[in-house]
């Protein structure tokens, strides 16, 4: 029997767009950074992500997070959460 978290990750994974999956793969590869704030901006390979709504949605869904808390204009490494890893596995 699967745990509740696994079921939620499976449902979320089924609803992710191709762009959202690509963002999660970039985060998994260590290529992404997040800024601070309640709506953090995502940078991939040092450049702003072209779809900030996707990155905001992924953070709100609990699929990615920053390594540490930073100020509004500071950046930190973006990391996948357990649910984020499950969503792209």
Automatic annotation (TrEMBL):
User: Origin, by domain of life?
Assistant: Bacteria
Protein name, as recorded: Uncharacterized protein
What is this organism's lineage? Answer: Bacteria, Bacillati, Actinomycetota, Actinomycetes, Pseudonocardiales
